[in-house]
Amino acid sequence: MTYYFLGIGGIGMSALARFFKQSGHNVSGYDRTESPLTRQLVSEGIPVHYCDDPSLIPDNIDLVVYTPAVPQDTKEFEYLRDKGLPIKKRSQVLGELTRGKKCIAVAGSHGKTTTSAMIAFLLSKTDIGCSAFLGGISKNFGSNLLVNTKSEYVVVEADEYDRSFLQLHPFYSVITATDPDHLDIYGTHEKLIEAFEQFANQTSPDGAIFLKEGLAGHHHDHDEEHDEEHETKHLHIGEEIKQYSYSARSIEPDYYAINVRNYNGNIFFDLRTPERVLYDLELQNSCLYNVENAVAAAAVALNCGINEYQLRNGLKSFDGIQRRFDVRVKNNDIIYIDDYAHHPKEISATIESVKYLYPGKRVVGIFQPHLYSRTRDLADQFAEALKPLDEIILLPIYPAREKPIPGVSSGMILRKLDTMNKYLCTREQIPDMVDALYPDILLTMGAGDIDRLVPVLEKKLKEDL
User: CA-CA distance, 301 to 293, in Å (whole number)?
Assistant: First the structure.
């Protein structure tokens, strides 16, 4: 088979491309810009070009795989469509690959990448094993793909964008959060909730769903439509689906963390399960919000059959995900952390973790907003989330798939920040700004091309020592 990928440099697309390549098929693709990930694909024998030119498309294609992030008016898309070739969305292909397997699907407006990677790593360290299609580069695997043809389990990140996750019919499902996002697709938060509800109800009655506390399913009264404390709309889930709740902040759920503590940058906690307490579990070089992800991952892994010893060692040796609370420089002079946070709740959680792990330190944060529509819809929340930083640097919006919206810019967030310690810079100005502000902790956040700034800052900070 010959597969051609439109938008092959996307994190989900590249995992599929790697899977088909490893399965012995011919794979190639197009992407708008070169990146470290596309260069890695090329080094693995997958040709990639960056010019929207139909003459560069190979002959005899059996299937075209595309991501909705690629506009359908690109020349290559129109050419392939006019030729009448089979064309499928990434989510459709992923759904087909998971059929006949025990799919573990992790959904949520944040936390899904780390949680799914944790589950995959925990299972991979045992005879249970798993395959995995991840939404980030696992530091343990050095990839976003794990292939194990002998295991019945496949772990996937279930993306709510464009309703992609509705292609999945999980054996075990996880929902980490249902905060408003992708309103350019859904229009309202209520419509987003409806999609999460549909995803939840596609869980197998032979399996189970694991819900963060506050996303109550069938264990609530139907007249209690909204939980004011958690500001989260409840999901209605069929009685036939087994349900577990989890949390790192409460002692009410089925699985929860207690006695969370920080020792020398490592986090320890005790895990209460429905059967017992597991004491002194450890996350190394991690962050506060990963405790909640670890509780969810542990709940799923324990239900898959791993034992306490395997869980304990797996969590301790989990190295995390690139661009998820990714500690790039750590010495007596400065700590530099890079994070993918691009939603206000994620930004708040990241900053909270930094303040918790390194109390009293002066934190300079650089944030690149992602999407005009998200900036327009959540400008107030972004300003509130960024407020705890000592110095705030904003980059221009990364548009991704969107055209500019009149009047919408990073300046919207800047004007809402009630502080004098705020700046709007180009990417080229950032190294000089960092020099001038002299941080104890430097934090970069965003889902756009801010990742290209990371190696520049890392190199500079190490050279300045």
Answer: 12
